[in-house]
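STRUCTURE:
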Protein backbone atom coordinates (compact mmCIF):
# COMPACT_ATOMS: atom_id res chain seq x y z
CA UNK A 1 0.00 0.00 0.00
CA UNK A 2 1.37 3.43 -0.95
CA UNK A 3 1.09 5.97 1.89
CA UNK A 4 0.19 9.64 1.57
CA UNK A 5 3.86 10.70 1.57
CA UNK A 6 4.70 8.21 -1.19
CA UNK A 7 1.73 9.39 -3.26
CA UNK A 8 3.03 12.95 -3.02
CA UNK A 9 6.53 11.86 -4.07
CA UNK A 10 5.18 9.88 -7.01
CA UNK A 11 3.06 12.86 -8.06
CA UNK A 12 6.18 15.05 -7.98
CA UNK A 13 8.01 12.41 -10.03
CA UNK A 14 5.25 12.35 -12.67
CA UNK A 15 5.31 16.15 -12.88
CA UNK A 16 9.05 16.18 -13.45
CA UNK A 17 8.77 13.48 -16.10
CA UNK A 18 6.25 15.64 -17.93
CA UNK A 19 8.63 18.62 -17.77
CA UNK A 20 11.39 16.44 -19.17
CA UNK A 21 9.40 15.15 -22.13
CA UNK A 22 11.15 17.48 -24.58
CA UNK A 23 14.60 16.05 -23.89
CA UNK A 24 15.86 13.84 -26.73
CA UNK A 25 18.75 11.85 -25.19
CA UNK A 26 18.33 8.12 -24.50
CA UNK A 27 18.53 8.66 -20.74
CA UNK A 28 18.25 12.05 -19.09
CA UNK A 29 19.50 12.39 -15.53
CA UNK A 30 17.77 14.03 -12.61
CA UNK A 31 20.04 17.05 -13.02
CA UNK A 32 18.96 17.31 -16.68
CA UNK A 33 15.31 17.28 -15.64
CA UNK A 34 16.04 19.93 -13.01
CA UNK A 35 17.65 22.09 -15.70
CA UNK A 36 14.58 21.68 -17.91
CA UNK A 37 12.41 22.96 -15.06
CA UNK A 38 14.68 26.01 -14.71
CA UNK A 39 15.65 24.77 -11.23
CA UNK A 40 12.16 25.64 -10.02
CA UNK A 41 12.22 23.67 -6.74
CA UNK A 42 15.46 25.39 -5.68
CA UNK A 43 14.43 28.99 -6.41
CA UNK A 44 14.73 31.32 -3.45
CA UNK A 45 16.52 28.69 -1.33
CA UNK A 46 20.06 28.40 -0.05
CA UNK A 47 21.37 25.12 -1.45
CA UNK A 48 23.92 22.67 -0.12
CA UNK A 49 25.09 20.05 -2.63
CA UNK A 50 26.36 16.55 -1.80
CA UNK A 51 28.69 15.99 -4.70
CA UNK A 52 31.85 14.55 -6.24
CA UNK A 53 33.41 14.10 -9.67
CA UNK A 54 30.42 12.05 -10.93
CA UNK A 55 28.03 14.97 -10.44
CA UNK A 56 27.64 16.05 -14.06
CA UNK A 57 24.70 16.39 -16.42
CA UNK A 58 24.37 14.35 -19.62
CA UNK A 59 26.39 16.98 -21.50
CA UNK A 60 29.30 16.86 -19.05
CA UNK A 61 28.53 20.07 -17.16
CA UNK A 62 29.35 19.93 -13.44
CA UNK A 63 26.29 20.07 -11.22
CA UNK A 64 28.03 22.38 -8.77
CA UNK A 65 28.83 24.83 -11.55
CA UNK A 66 25.23 24.75 -12.83
CA UNK A 67 23.82 25.34 -9.36
CA UNK A 68 26.38 28.08 -8.67
CA UNK A 69 25.26 29.88 -11.85
CA UNK A 70 21.50 29.36 -11.59
CA UNK A 71 20.78 28.92 -7.87
CA UNK A 72 22.03 30.14 -4.53
CA UNK A 73 24.59 27.38 -3.90
CA UNK A 74 26.22 28.00 -0.51
CA UNK A 75 28.04 24.78 0.50
CA UNK A 76 29.38 21.45 -0.77
CA UNK A 77 29.62 18.07 0.98
CA UNK A 78 31.76 15.16 -0.19
CA UNK A 79 31.64 11.37 0.42
CA UNK A 80 34.35 8.70 0.62
CA UNK A 81 37.06 9.22 -2.04
CA UNK A 82 36.63 13.01 -1.85
CA UNK A 83 35.50 15.76 -4.19
CA UNK A 84 37.59 14.45 -7.08
CA UNK A 85 37.10 10.74 -6.36
CA UNK A 86 40.83 10.05 -6.13
CA UNK A 87 41.30 9.16 -2.46
CA UNK A 88 41.80 5.46 -1.72
CA UNK A 89 39.06 3.39 -0.11
CA UNK A 90 38.79 3.87 3.64
CA UNK A 91 41.14 6.87 3.72
CA UNK A 92 39.91 9.92 5.63
CA UNK A 93 39.16 12.97 3.50
CA UNK A 94 39.77 16.54 4.68
CA UNK A 95 37.37 19.43 4.20
CA UNK A 96 38.78 21.95 1.75
CA UNK A 97 37.99 24.86 -0.49
CA UNK A 98 36.69 23.90 -3.92
CA UNK A 99 38.77 25.75 -6.55
CA UNK A 100 35.93 25.51 -9.08
CA UNK A 101 33.21 27.27 -7.06
CA UNK A 102 35.20 28.84 -4.24
CA UNK A 103 32.92 27.15 -1.70
CA UNK A 104 33.90 25.02 1.26
CA UNK A 105 33.63 21.29 0.48
CA UNK A 106 32.83 19.69 3.83
CA UNK A 107 34.13 16.15 4.15
CA UNK A 108 31.62 13.50 5.21
CA UNK A 109 34.33 10.86 5.36
CA UNK A 110 36.53 12.21 8.11
CA UNK A 111 35.76 13.15 11.72
CA UNK A 112 32.04 12.94 10.88
CA UNK A 113 29.95 10.89 8.45
CA UNK A 114 26.90 13.12 8.95
CA UNK A 115 26.68 16.91 8.38
CA UNK A 116 26.87 18.69 11.71
CA UNK A 117 24.44 21.52 12.58
CA UNK A 118 27.24 24.03 11.97
CA UNK A 119 27.83 22.56 8.48
CA UNK A 120 24.14 23.07 7.72
CA UNK A 121 23.90 26.60 9.10
CA UNK A 122 22.46 28.86 6.40
CA UNK A 123 21.24 25.92 4.23
CA UNK A 124 17.55 25.54 3.30
CA UNK A 125 17.79 22.47 1.07
CA UNK A 126 20.33 19.67 0.64
CA UNK A 127 20.63 18.20 -2.86
CA UNK A 128 22.23 14.80 -3.50
CA UNK A 129 23.71 14.16 -6.95
CA UNK A 130 26.23 11.29 -6.88
CA UNK A 131 26.51 8.21 -9.09
CA UNK A 132 26.13 4.98 -7.12
CA UNK A 133 27.00 1.44 -8.30
CA UNK A 134 23.99 -0.51 -7.02
CA UNK A 135 25.70 -2.56 -4.31
CA UNK A 136 24.86 -2.24 -0.60
CA UNK A 137 28.47 -2.04 0.61
CA UNK A 138 29.41 0.95 -1.59
CA UNK A 139 29.25 3.86 0.85
CA UNK A 140 27.64 6.60 -1.23
CA UNK A 141 24.12 5.46 -0.28
CA UNK A 142 25.16 5.47 3.38
CA UNK A 143 26.33 9.07 2.97
CA UNK A 144 22.98 9.91 1.40
CA UNK A 145 21.12 8.41 4.37
CA UNK A 146 23.27 10.23 6.94
CA UNK A 147 22.55 13.48 5.10
CA UNK A 148 18.83 12.69 5.07
CA UNK A 149 19.00 12.13 8.83
CA UNK A 150 20.80 15.45 9.35
CA UNK A 151 18.25 17.18 7.12
CA UNK A 152 15.39 15.76 9.21
CA UNK A 153 17.02 16.92 12.45
CA UNK A 154 17.71 20.43 11.14
CA UNK A 155 14.40 20.81 9.26
CA UNK A 156 16.21 21.14 5.95
CA UNK A 157 14.58 19.94 2.73
CA UNK A 158 16.24 17.05 0.91
CA UNK A 159 16.32 16.61 -2.87
CA UNK A 160 17.70 13.59 -4.74
CA UNK A 161 18.68 14.12 -8.37
CA UNK A 162 18.22 10.58 -9.61
CA UNK A 163 20.76 8.55 -11.59
CA UNK A 164 20.81 5.08 -13.18
CA UNK A 165 21.67 1.96 -11.28
CA UNK A 166 24.53 0.68 -13.50
CA UNK A 167 23.56 -2.92 -12.64
CA UNK A 168 20.04 -2.24 -13.88
CA UNK A 169 16.84 -2.49 -11.89
CA UNK A 170 16.18 -6.21 -12.27
CA UNK A 171 19.18 -7.79 -10.51
CA UNK A 172 18.36 -8.36 -6.82
CA UNK A 173 20.51 -10.90 -4.98
CA UNK A 174 22.44 -11.75 -1.86
CA UNK A 175 21.88 -11.83 1.87
CA UNK A 176 20.29 -9.03 3.85
CA UNK A 177 22.02 -7.49 6.89
CA UNK A 178 21.53 -8.79 10.41
CA UNK A 179 21.08 -5.99 12.95
CA UNK A 180 24.44 -6.54 14.77
CA UNK A 181 26.26 -5.98 11.49
CA UNK A 182 24.58 -2.73 10.42
CA UNK A 183 27.45 -0.36 9.60
CA UNK A 184 28.52 2.31 7.14
CA UNK A 185 29.24 -0.44 4.58
CA UNK A 186 25.84 -2.07 5.18
CA UNK A 187 23.58 0.69 6.47
CA UNK A 188 20.19 -0.85 5.64
CA UNK A 189 18.48 -4.26 5.89
CA UNK A 190 18.50 -4.83 2.13
CA UNK A 191 20.07 -7.49 -0.13
CA UNK A 192 23.68 -7.09 -1.26
CA UNK A 193 22.38 -6.09 -4.71
CA UNK A 194 19.14 -4.12 -4.38
CA UNK A 195 18.23 -3.13 -7.95
CA UNK A 196 17.09 0.38 -7.02
CA UNK A 197 18.14 3.88 -8.06
CA UNK A 198 19.34 6.27 -5.37
CA UNK A 199 16.04 8.14 -5.63
CA UNK A 200 13.99 5.01 -5.15
CA UNK A 201 16.18 3.89 -2.28
CA UNK A 202 15.88 7.33 -0.63
CA UNK A 203 12.10 6.98 -0.71
CA UNK A 204 12.30 3.54 0.89
CA UNK A 205 14.80 4.68 3.54
CA UNK A 206 12.58 7.62 4.45
CA UNK A 207 9.32 5.67 4.58
CA UNK A 208 10.76 2.71 6.49
CA UNK A 209 12.24 4.91 9.21
CA UNK A 210 15.79 3.68 8.63
CA UNK A 211 17.06 7.12 9.64
CA UNK A 212 16.24 9.06 12.79
CA UNK A 213 12.93 10.66 11.87
CA UNK A 214 11.79 11.43 8.34
CA UNK A 215 13.02 14.22 6.10
CA UNK A 216 11.09 16.43 3.69
CA UNK A 217 12.09 14.45 0.59
CA UNK A 218 11.69 15.21 -3.11
CA UNK A 219 13.08 12.95 -5.85
CA UNK A 220 13.76 14.44 -9.27
CA UNK A 221 13.46 11.41 -11.56
CA UNK A 222 15.23 10.55 -14.78
CA UNK A 223 13.61 10.30 -18.16
CA UNK A 224 14.13 7.30 -20.44
CA UNK A 225 15.61 4.89 -17.90
CA UNK A 226 13.93 1.52 -17.48
CA UNK A 227 14.76 -1.37 -15.18
CA UNK A 228 16.21 -3.52 -17.96
CA UNK A 229 18.94 -0.97 -18.75
CA UNK A 230 22.48 -1.53 -17.52
CA UNK A 231 25.05 1.26 -17.87
CA UNK A 232 26.09 0.46 -21.44
CA UNK A 233 22.47 0.90 -22.55
CA UNK A 234 22.12 4.44 -21.20
CA UNK A 235 24.28 6.25 -23.74
CA UNK A 236 25.86 8.18 -20.86
CA UNK A 237 29.58 8.65 -20.32
CA UNK A 238 30.94 6.80 -17.29
CA UNK A 239 32.92 8.85 -14.79
CA UNK A 240 34.96 6.57 -12.47
CA UNK A 241 33.07 6.63 -9.18
CA UNK A 242 36.26 5.78 -7.26
CA UNK A 243 39.79 4.65 -8.17
CA UNK A 244 38.82 0.98 -8.50
CA UNK A 245 35.52 1.45 -10.36
CA UNK A 246 37.02 2.82 -13.60
CA UNK A 247 34.42 1.61 -16.11
CA UNK A 248 30.66 1.27 -16.39
CA UNK A 249 31.15 -2.49 -16.38
CA UNK A 250 33.15 -2.44 -13.12
CA UNK A 251 30.13 -2.74 -10.78
CA UNK A 252 29.31 -6.29 -11.92
CA UNK A 253 32.87 -7.36 -11.09
CA UNK A 254 32.69 -5.58 -7.74
CA UNK A 255 29.61 -7.66 -6.90
CA UNK A 256 31.31 -10.92 -7.88
CA UNK A 257 34.70 -10.50 -6.16
CA UNK A 258 34.61 -7.42 -3.93
CA UNK A 259 33.26 -9.23 -0.90
CA UNK A 260 35.70 -12.16 -1.30
CA UNK A 261 38.62 -9.77 -1.68
CA UNK A 262 38.16 -8.47 1.87
CA UNK A 263 39.89 -11.63 3.19
CA UNK A 264 43.67 -11.91 3.59
CA UNK A 265 45.83 -13.58 0.96
CA UNK A 266 43.45 -12.97 -1.94
CA UNK A 267 44.10 -10.69 -4.89
CA UNK A 268 41.33 -9.20 -7.02
CA UNK A 269 43.30 -6.83 -9.23
CA UNK A 270 42.86 -3.80 -6.96
CA UNK A 271 45.26 -1.04 -7.94
CA UNK A 272 45.75 -2.43 -11.44
CA UNK A 273 44.14 -1.96 -14.82
CA UNK A 274 41.26 -4.37 -14.22
CA UNK A 275 40.17 -4.12 -10.57
CA UNK A 276 37.83 -6.86 -9.33
CA UNK A 277 38.12 -8.76 -12.63
CA UNK A 278 40.20 -11.61 -11.20
CA UNK A 279 40.66 -13.73 -8.11
CA UNK A 280 43.97 -15.35 -7.16
CA UNK A 281 46.01 -16.64 -4.23
CA UNK A 282 49.44 -18.15 -3.70
CA UNK A 283 48.00 -21.48 -2.60
CA UNK A 284 45.70 -21.89 -5.62
CA UNK A 285 46.22 -24.07 -8.69
CA UNK A 286 44.89 -21.98 -11.56
CA UNK A 287 43.88 -24.98 -13.68
CA UNK A 288 41.92 -26.72 -10.94
CA UNK A 289 40.33 -23.51 -9.62
CA UNK A 290 39.28 -22.37 -13.08
CA UNK A 291 37.94 -25.82 -13.92
CA UNK A 292 35.83 -25.70 -10.75
CA UNK A 293 34.40 -22.29 -11.65
CA UNK A 294 33.68 -23.43 -15.20
CA UNK A 295 31.70 -26.36 -13.81
CA UNK A 296 29.24 -24.01 -12.09
CA UNK A 297 25.98 -22.89 -13.65
CA UNK A 298 26.97 -19.25 -14.19
CA UNK A 299 25.49 -18.15 -17.54
CA UNK A 300 27.02 -14.95 -18.85
CA UNK A 301 30.30 -15.43 -16.96
CA UNK A 302 33.50 -16.77 -18.57
CA UNK A 303 36.54 -17.93 -16.56
CA UNK A 304 40.13 -18.05 -17.80
CA UNK A 305 43.25 -19.34 -16.07
CA UNK A 306 45.51 -16.71 -14.56
CA UNK A 307 49.06 -16.86 -13.23
CA UNK A 308 51.49 -14.11 -12.27
CA UNK A 309 54.51 -15.10 -10.22
CA UNK A 310 53.28 -17.21 -7.33
CA UNK A 311 49.71 -15.91 -7.68
CA UNK A 312 47.35 -18.28 -9.48
CA UNK A 313 43.64 -18.08 -10.07
CA UNK A 314 41.07 -17.02 -12.66
CA UNK A 315 40.21 -14.03 -14.79
CA UNK A 316 36.49 -13.24 -15.12
CA UNK A 317 34.59 -11.92 -18.09
CA UNK A 318 31.05 -10.94 -17.13
CA UNK A 319 28.22 -9.85 -19.41
CA UNK A 320 26.50 -6.94 -17.58
CA UNK A 321 23.18 -8.69 -18.26
CA UNK A 322 24.49 -12.10 -17.15
CA UNK A 323 21.61 -14.21 -15.76
CA UNK A 324 24.04 -15.67 -13.21
CA UNK A 325 23.66 -14.76 -9.54
CA UNK A 326 26.95 -12.87 -9.13
CA UNK A 327 26.72 -12.65 -5.33
CA UNK A 328 26.24 -16.43 -5.25
CA UNK A 329 29.37 -16.75 -7.39
CA UNK A 330 31.29 -15.06 -4.57
CA UNK A 331 30.07 -17.70 -2.11
CA UNK A 332 31.07 -20.55 -4.43
CA UNK A 333 34.50 -18.93 -4.67
CA UNK A 334 34.74 -18.64 -0.90
CA UNK A 335 33.94 -22.31 -0.40
CA UNK A 336 36.53 -23.46 -2.93
CA UNK A 337 39.17 -21.01 -1.70
CA UNK A 338 38.67 -22.26 1.84
CA UNK A 339 38.86 -25.91 0.76
CA UNK A 340 42.00 -25.36 -1.29
CA UNK A 341 43.66 -23.46 1.58
CA UNK A 342 43.26 -26.44 3.91
CA UNK A 343 40.33 -24.72 5.66
CA UNK A 344 42.61 -21.83 6.66
CA UNK A 345 40.96 -19.01 4.69
CA UNK A 346 39.31 -17.35 7.69
CA UNK A 347 41.98 -18.26 10.23
CA UNK A 348 44.66 -16.46 8.25
CA UNK A 349 42.60 -13.24 8.18
CA UNK A 350 43.04 -10.64 10.93
CA UNK A 351 40.20 -9.80 13.31
CA UNK A 352 39.76 -6.31 11.86
CA UNK A 353 39.57 -7.61 8.31
CA UNK A 354 37.16 -10.36 9.35
CA UNK A 355 34.90 -7.78 10.99
CA UNK A 356 34.86 -5.73 7.79
CA UNK A 357 34.09 -8.85 5.76
CA UNK A 358 31.19 -9.74 8.06
CA UNK A 359 29.87 -6.16 7.83
CA UNK A 360 30.00 -6.28 4.04
CA UNK A 361 28.34 -9.71 3.93
CA UNK A 362 25.86 -8.72 6.61
CA UNK A 363 26.44 -11.64 8.99
CA UNK A 364 29.18 -13.71 10.62
CA UNK A 365 27.27 -16.92 9.88
CA UNK A 366 29.02 -17.35 6.53
CA UNK A 367 32.25 -18.38 8.27
CA UNK A 368 30.73 -21.16 10.35
CA UNK A 369 28.67 -22.36 7.39
CA UNK A 370 31.68 -22.69 5.11
CA UNK A 371 33.93 -24.16 7.80
CA UNK A 372 31.25 -26.74 8.67
CA UNK A 373 31.03 -27.75 5.02
CA UNK A 374 27.57 -26.34 4.33
CA UNK A 375 27.24 -26.35 0.54
CA UNK A 376 27.22 -23.05 -1.36
CA UNK A 377 23.88 -24.13 -2.84
CA UNK A 378 22.36 -24.30 0.65
CA UNK A 379 23.84 -20.95 1.68
CA UNK A 380 22.48 -19.25 -1.43
CA UNK A 381 19.09 -20.94 -1.03
CA UNK A 382 18.89 -19.32 2.41
CA UNK A 383 18.72 -15.87 0.76
CA UNK A 384 15.85 -16.59 -1.60
CA UNK A 385 12.93 -15.81 0.70
CA UNK A 386 14.51 -12.57 1.91
CA UNK A 387 15.14 -11.52 -1.70
CA UNK A 388 11.50 -12.28 -2.57
CA UNK A 389 10.29 -10.34 0.47
CA UNK A 390 12.47 -7.39 -0.45
CA UNK A 391 11.20 -7.32 -4.03
CA UNK A 392 7.68 -7.07 -2.64
CA UNK A 393 8.61 -4.43 -0.06
CA UNK A 394 10.42 -2.19 -2.55
CA UNK A 395 7.59 -2.20 -5.10
CA UNK A 396 5.82 0.82 -3.54
CA UNK A 397 8.93 2.97 -3.99
CA UNK A 398 9.85 2.20 -7.61
CA UNK A 399 9.68 5.11 -10.03
CA UNK A 400 10.48 3.26 -13.28
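SEQUENCE:
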Amino acid sequence: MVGRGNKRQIAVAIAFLAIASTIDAAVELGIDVLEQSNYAILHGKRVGLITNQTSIDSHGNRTRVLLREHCNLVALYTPEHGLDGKEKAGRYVKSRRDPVTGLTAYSLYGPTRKPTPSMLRGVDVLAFDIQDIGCRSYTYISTMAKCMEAAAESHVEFVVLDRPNPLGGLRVEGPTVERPWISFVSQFPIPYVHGMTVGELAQMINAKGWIGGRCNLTVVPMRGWTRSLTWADTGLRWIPTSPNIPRGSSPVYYVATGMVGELSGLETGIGGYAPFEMISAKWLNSERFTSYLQSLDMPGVVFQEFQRGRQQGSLLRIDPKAPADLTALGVYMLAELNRSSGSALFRRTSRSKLDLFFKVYGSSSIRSQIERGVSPESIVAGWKQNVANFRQARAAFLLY
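REMARK: The two ends are 17 Å apart (CA to CA).
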